[in-house]
Amino acid sequence: MKRRLISILLSVCTLLCCAFCLNGCKDDDKSQTKTSQITVMVLSSNPSVELIVENGKVVTATASNDEGNFILSQTEFVGLTPKQAGNAYAKVCVDNGFIYAQTQNITVEISGKQANATFDSVEKEINAVLSEEGLTISVNKDELTPEELKNMLSDALRHLNEEQINAFTQTQLYSNLLSIRKEVQQLDLNTQELKEAYYSSRAYKIISAKLSSWAQTISSLDGFIAKEQIINAIDDLNAKISSFSYSYAESFLMDGEYKTAIKNYIQAKNQQLVWAINSGEVSEQIKQNAQNLKLALSSLKEQTKELLNAMQDTINSAISYIQGLIDGVAVVSGTTLKFTNAQLESAIAQNKEAFKQNYQTFIDENVWASLQP
């Protein structure tokens, strides 16, 4: 569930851009040389998997949908060359019934200076697998545009606003996307809901840490009545964030209506995959049943998101209120508010550790692995 968070004051955010560019703001020529060797590639039939290739090897593999999470539970892509990854993707999709005679096409979305050469090698390997299986399916190339890369990054770095994302150079887009994908990969988040939870918690932790740091600076000042008000407001904000995190987990990760809807869809999809493997085709009735249950799952998710979005609106209002108080004190006192890269990294590390502790049960569960036919 993506929800754009309240942006921190632009005057202060400008100070922080270099921290989030992961050294993209300095030694840019060296960074450009490095990231020119990066290719972002998304392989899609129904399972959709995003691969980041650096210096000829896959360094991160991220599912773009739930079926993609299943594929990642069955195949290790990291360390493969792009052509090996294309081969592995095609094989695991064929072996598990995702690619069969009725499949219309396979799409390779790709970006980077090596895009054309990389696509040619990937297409050749996918076609080799299809030929072995007696399948005639087109492999299509789509450009993964800078705008699409920005959208991918915006979804992950939710503490940054649209203006900041748009200000990134191509070098910074690649380096930031690579960094956040590596961070999430280390946590082994195997459902879309877990990744949504992590991206939100990460953004809230950064914002809360930043506001707390600024409040600490203000608390050292004398004669400002607002500082007690700010401290109390931050405590209230953190309580709201904790409440949201629990409600999210209760809605999407714990046993309940949504979890039941996932199991129903997996059961129907599993039946479809078995048919595809055994007979090479799937009846319209079975396909429609799986599709209906997936639509019901999506509808339930949207309804639940509406309730959670209301909680996030309250959190965003609290952030905006605190920002206004802090800005007022800073302007009147002439105080410069800073949030260093070390503080940023500390907030990210703290959130990562807390997330592992709080969500480990759900991480270990890996519900989409049960899709295997």
Strand order of the largest sheet: 3-2-1-4-5
The beta-strand count equals: 5
How much helicity do the residues have? 55-70%
- Compute the average pLDDT: 89
**Main sheet overview:** 5 strands, mixed
Number of helices: 13
Overall domain count? 2
What's the overall geometry? globular
Which stretches of 5+ consecutive residues score pLDDT under 50?
8-33
Radius of gyration, rounded? 23 Å
The end-to-end span amounts to: 28 Å
Brief digest:
By secondary structure, the chain is an alpha+beta fold.
Task: Write structural notes for this entry.
By secondary structure, this protein is α+β, with helices and mostly antiparallel strands. It folds into two domains: 10-187, no CATH class; 192-371, no CATH class. Helix content is 66%, strand content 9%. It is built from 13 helices and five strands. The chain has helices spanning 10-20, 28-35, 66-74, 82-95, 115-132, 146-156, 162-167, 170-187, 192-219, 226-252, 257-279, 284-333, 341-365; strands at 38-44, 48-54, 57-63, 105-111, 138-143. A five-stranded mixed β-sheet has the order 3-2-1-4-5, sandwiched between helices. Helix 9 runs antiparallel to helix 10 (226-252). The longest helix is centred in the last third of the chain and has 50 residues, at 284-333. The chain is globular. Mean pLDDT is 89; it is low at 8-33.
Secondary structure layout:
Layout: H1 10-20, H2 28-35, E1 38-44, E2 48-54, E3 57-63, H3 66-74, H4 82-95, E4 105-111, H5 115-132, E5 138-143, H6 146-156, H7 162-167, H8 170-187, H9 192-219, H10 226-252, H11 257-279, H12 284-333, H13 341-365
Parallel strand pairs: 4-5
Antiparallel strand pairs: 1-2, 1-4, 2-3
Helix pairs in contact: 2-8, 4-5, 6-8, 9-10, 9-12, 9-13, 10-12, 11-12
